[in-house]
Structure formats: C-alpha cells, structure tokens
Design brief:
By secondary structure, this protein is an alpha/beta fold. The chain is about 45% helix and about 15% strand. The protein has ten helices and six strands, in the order ααβαβαβααβααβαβα. It has helices at about 10-20, 30-50, 65-80, 95-105, 120-125, 125-145, 155-160, 170-175, 195-200, 210-215; strands spanning about 55-60, 85-90, 110-115, 150-155, 185, 200-205. Strands 3-2-4-5-1-6 form a six-stranded parallel beta sheet, with helices on both faces.
C-alpha cells in the first residue's frame, strides 16, 4: 500500500480499488505482485468476517433473461451435495422437456410440481389463474415448512404476486416458516418491494438486448427450452 492509502478501508471497497489499480498498464511486475498480495490479504479478511450460517431467501427478478436458469443452477448444486429439493412452478404450464429430462436423474432427491396452466394471454381466465396460483402456493408451503428439503424453488411466483393472483403478505408469512438452514428461491419479473426487503440475496436481470425483440429470432432448444 502507498503512503496515501488509508489502512481502515472497508474490505469490499478496498478489494474493488485493488482490482481496478491492478489493470493499470504502467505497473511493474513487482508492483502487480504487491497489489495481488494485498488483494489476497483483503480477501482472507472478508472470508474470516463471514462466519454466520443461515438459510437464505433468494430473489431473482428483472426483465432480463436467466432468472429461472440461474435458480436451476442452485438446484443442481444442491442435488450434487445430496440435498433434497422441491420445485414448484407457477404460471407456466409445464417444465420444458430438456429440463425435465436432466432433472429426472435425481428423482430420489427432487420433487417438482408444474402447477400453472400457461401465461395469462393463453388461459384468459383470471379466476382460474387465481385458483391455480393459490393451489400451487399451498403445495409450496408444505415443502417450505419441511426440514427434509434443503432448497425450495418457487418458479415465477413473483409474476403471480405482481398480477394479484397471490397476496405478498401471505407469501412473506409463509417463507418465514422455513427451517433456519433451508433456502427458498423466488423467481420472476416484478418482485414487490416488500419481498426484496425481506430477501437475503436479490439479483436483478437487466435486459440489454434480446434476439426475439431485436431480430425476430424464435425460441431455440438449449437456449429457451
């Protein structure tokens, strides 16, 4: 560190500063190594400070693509550790065949329910949509409360809340009943502020470009399904 660099920086701020400084083309090899050594020390300090263990409420929202895909990555990790996982799918009519084929390899650990009947422009029946969303929620609640399930994914539940099919206070009260070491993921655009405030981890997918909107490219296997 230089003489002008404060020694009491927040570790997150200092880590970002060191990352930026290390990109300078004017650094000598010795200077670069010193910065990386300090970066290592900062990282070790950050890790040492993170000593708490707890189950997380995770929200994936935003208009960009990848909310469910990111959640499925966590599902696979949990399955890889031998944990039991439940997936409840709101709104959408069914799991895509490719996802279902892959996840079927963990049939002893994974339980999933595709309980929607399609998007609102397909169903065209608000009362029926409300009924199905609440049925899905009651099913989800059984797994959220169950200590045998380490991870519960509520796919597109944010959309059900946004459309008024589910009451956000009801959802918040439900996820508050989860065991202390289990995780709940809630996906879908339009997550309400109360849910974001309650969550431990929130990721917003930002749409920058999309081939369907800009180029008229249709959904493709391996990308959308």
């Amino acid at each position: 560190m230089t003489a002008n660099t404060p020694t009491n920086l927040n570790p997150d701020i200092e880590a970002e500063r060191l990352n930026q400084e290390a990109t300078a083309s004017s650094l000598t090899e010795e200077q670069y190594q010193r910065k990386m050594q300090r970066r290592k020390e900062v990282q070790q300090k950050r890790v040492a400070q993170a000593s708490q263990e707890k189950g997380l409420i995770i929200v994936n929202t935003g208009n960009g693509k990848g909310k469910t895909t990111a959640a499925l990555g966590m599902v696979l990790r949990s399955l890889g550790h031998g944990y039991k996982v439940a997936v409840i799918q709101f709104i959408k009519g069914a799991w895509e065949p490719a996802e279902k084929a892959v996840l079927s390899h963990w049939k002893d650990q994974l339980t999933f329910h595709a309980m929607g009947e399609g998007f609102t422009w397909e169903t065209q029946n608000r009362d029926r949509d409300i009924q199905k969303a609440n049925e899905a929620w009651e099913t989800a609640l059984n797994y959220i409360r169950n200590p045998d399930f380490r991870l519960v994914l509520l796919d597109e539940v944010n959309v059900a809340i946004k459309l008024g099919f589910l009451n956000v206070d009801k959802v918040l009260a439900g996820i508050a009943q989860k065991p202390s070491d289990s995780h709940v993921i809630l996906t879908g655009r339009g997550a309400p502020a109360a849910l974001i405030e309650c969550a431990d981890l929130v990721t917003e997918m930002t749409l920058v470009k999309h081939p369907f909107r800009e180029q008229g490219v249709k959904a493709q296997p391996g990308i959308e399904f």
